[in-house]
Amino acid sequence: MAAACQLIGPILQLKIAPRVYTPLVTQSTMTARLLHPDEWELASRSSIDSQGTFNLDDADFEAQVPSSSKFGERQLPWLSRIFSSAAAGYRRLNSTSRPALAGTPRPSCSRRFCIRRCCYLHVVAGIVFVLALFTSILFPSYTHLPAHYSTLRKSVLESSYPGRGNPRHEKVFIAASLYDRGGELAQGQWGTQLLELIDLLGPDNVFLSIYENDSGEEGERALRALAEQVQCQKSIVSEKHLDPKTIPTVTIPGGSKRIKRIEYLAQVRNRALQPLTDHPDMKLDKLLYLNDILFHPADVPQLLFSTNANEDGIAQYRAACAVDFDNPIKFYDTYATRDLEGYSMGLPFYPWFTSSGKGESRSDVLAGKDAVRVRSCWGGMVAFDAKYFQTGSPPTTPNPARFRSGHDLFWEASECCLIHADVQDPQTNVDEITDTGIYMNPFVRTAYDHRTLSWLGITRRFEGLYSFLHNLGNHLVGLPWHNPRRAEVPGQIVQETVWVPDAAQDGGGSFQVVDRVAGNDGYCGRRGLQVIVEDRKPGQKGFENIPVPFCRVHHGHHLRSIDLSLVTSTSYPCRPCLISLHRNYPKPGVASIPGPLLAKITNLWRFIDVANGRVQVMLHNLHQKHGDYVRLGPNVASVRNLDALKTIYGINKGYQKVCSNYKKLIEPSANIRNTNFYSVQQQLAKGRPTPTLFTTMDENFHAAIKRPVSSAYSMSTLTEFEPFVDRTIHTLFGKLDGFVAEAKVCDIAAWLQYYASDVIGELTFSKPLGFLEKGNDIDGIIVALEHMLDYAGKLSGGGSTGAVARFARTRLDERLNQKRTSPVADTHKDFLDRFLEAKKEHPAIVNDNQVFSYTISNMNAGSDTTAISLRAILYYTLKNRRASMRLCQELTVALEDNRISLPVSWKQSQEQLPYLDAVIKEALRLHLAVGLMLERVVPAEGLQLPDGPFLPAGTIVGANPWIIHRQLVFGEDVGSFVPGRRFKMDTESETDFQDRKQKMLRATFTFGAGPRTCIGKNISLLEIYKLIPSLLLRYKVRIWFQNEI
């Protein structure tokens, strides 16, 4: 066998290493990094087991598995370097580095490196410290009070007479609703601060109304003690138990009647306002509503009487809110707060608001204004103009403002936001609002514990450091959340999918698409439903979430399936969205699928994993640990189960690259979560993204643009191109002969890329690109192919606007000019001819842009991925002595018997070379060109995973071919290169062999699966099956290792 191989041809030494195409994907971004050949250069060990097979697990695959970590399942070197402490560096300086086990390499960190590292950390820490100190001294946030604030504060602090904080003796109604189970509020700091506040405002100027319920004996006792100390008019009510029968209920899916949480809170808050109804003739100027917060009493007069003061020093507002904090940095009440244009809040730290729209609320904060314009706020303490809450005597306000809940069952809005919607004038264009009369006052800050309150005066001095990080974080996280009702104009007719109770139906009702009149409160809400837990046990939450049901939607006379949990006001916007902590973890279905902790709450884990370039390795490790299903993101699941894949990638199963059906059921502005794996790969034609056969997410469009050209990709058509492939092979051999003559090592990776590119140029344009002739990249085309998929390439306006597009556009223009001047039928039709014929036959589908898209798709998909496959086949074949020798023998015997020629034809490779077929299939099983999950979106009916959870509509699922190709259907030694697995074993019956063969075929994802199988599959196979045997017939090939002399 060895002698036969040595007679094949001259020696050609190859430098070779496979690469993998791993575009970086998040829910909205994707890049690609193609590894440089040197990155996978193997050591000179042969890794041949006793059976003569190359063991992948012993060499490449397991050797590159990163060490496990508690953080997101892997070590992140750059993160650990950033967050490492200087103390760790000192320990390394003072310790002796030695291997933990015999034979392990000595750590490479030298003393000089550790010293440099410690110095670097000290410099960084010093810069941060100086920057913080500089900011806190020169640019503190909200520490320098306006003049009228200082005057009032001085009056409050430097005297002790009652009413010193209320210079105009304005009448103030203070309302509070309490749940004080242990009496700690009334008898503690809250009660003390309240009494001091009454003294500051003047007991003669205050009416205090407190409503407390279900607080137990200790709570009632504490409230009675507080009432005895109150010197102003008061109405203090303690109700042992609030009768739920007095609160309106709703009918939820299933038919039961429950109390909405917001309705309960609204009723409780309104009971503190009951004196306003009982005494309509009460003369009031301001209404102050308090939560169970801690505050500085001296701040409250500033909120009441100084916010947005006019020239006379009189406060002008409909409502003015404090800013409440959960800890010294974190803003608390994001649920009820909306900026001037109705956008939800940003990350909960200064400056709190996002730059969406005009970003005027954020600008007001950064400008240090005491009256930050908003549409709603709360902050634990809110001052209102009392006129909106009084009817008067005689009545002047027929419908005084009161707290309420929303009308739609599955559309929740805070009662604290809705009250602001009711006290402001209706808006006709929310994007042109300049002022609502509602303000947030960052000079007045409250907290929920004493420690946080004591720190607020210090932490505000450093807030100037946060602005840039806050803006960056908002863009990464995807804030503000999308709300399709934000811009609704009160009174307009809109279509809405709502739950309509109906006792006659199963489930107690159904979702129906109805026309409704838009209200004034659309900006407050989001999709969801929370209800009160009745008869709750100690320690149990007082409310629970009711899942938005998956059911049939009545739309006119049609029924459509939809999971309305996807149609939410918190759907992700079309922007890079990496982190959504508290909303992502409990996703139904995927929540029960194991995976890295970080991946359960953010797509940042996937971003980092792919950026490190070993996605397939990490995913293999995760599946080995967790089984058939692994959670890779908040709404993403990797599937290894072959039965599930039959459904996911099956024909007419409804698993698309986007859930386009949902958009027909909801507002056009609503954003449905989909997979952005494909959209970012679209080509650019005349500056605009053009969907291709690969990137389009519309199944109907895919079928439409595929149908006119599908026959051009059939193997019967492609075999007509064989003479042109042969010509390219001869050109390649001419170049390789030069390496043989000079006894030089050939970097075959580059030459295979040149070969694949020239072949696709020949097939598409009847003109090779010229890589082989020139021996290097031309006009940066190969670089452009990689850069087109890089994240940086997208940011810099990459895509098909570079060298690839220019070459394609030039060839297209030449062909069009040629047909106009010499309209003679060509004897040889290349792809471009066939695309132009399709344009003529299908003008409604194929236009000039689509022809351009076809050609670009050929260039992009037909060269680089084929080159990767060619490298992998040579790599594994030459690394396995037994396989290479057996293949050489098959080729030599076939050539001597005149059963094949040189170059080998497609027909000969399929009929005369069975071991070649086994070698190629085995190499492509082990090393695919694409190393990421092929994503699909679960359709409306959901997906029941075999031996796994049910996944609702909208979940992103898919399989990574690298993982599927290591299933046990290929044998126990799935990590090894064993071409013999493709043949019948001696102990195997023909029936068993055919059954095993079919199972392997069904588990093969080399070119994808289902209706979206790669249309260029036959092009790639033609290039591979012709070049590999011809190369091994022409030369005696061996791998050169870098340590060889």
TrEMBL record:
- Cofactor requirement: heme
Q: Does the keyword Heme apply?
A: yes
Source organism superkingdom: Eukaryota
InterPro entries linked? Cyt_P450 (IPR001128), Cyt_P450_CS (IPR017972), Cyt_P450_E_grp-IV (IPR002403), Cyt_P450_sf (IPR036396), Mannosyltransferase_CMT1 (IPR021047)
Q: Any one Gene Ontology biological process term?
A: mycotoxin biosynthetic process
Which Pfam families does its entry note?
CAP59_mtransfer, p450
SUPFAM superfamilies hit by this protein: Cytochrome P450
One molecular function GO term is:
iron ion binding
Query: Mind telling me which CDD domains this protein's record contains?
Result: CYP57A1-like
Q: Which family does it belong to?
A: Belongs to the cytochrome P450 family.
The name this protein carries in UniProt is Cytochrome P450
| Originating species | Penicillium egyptiacum
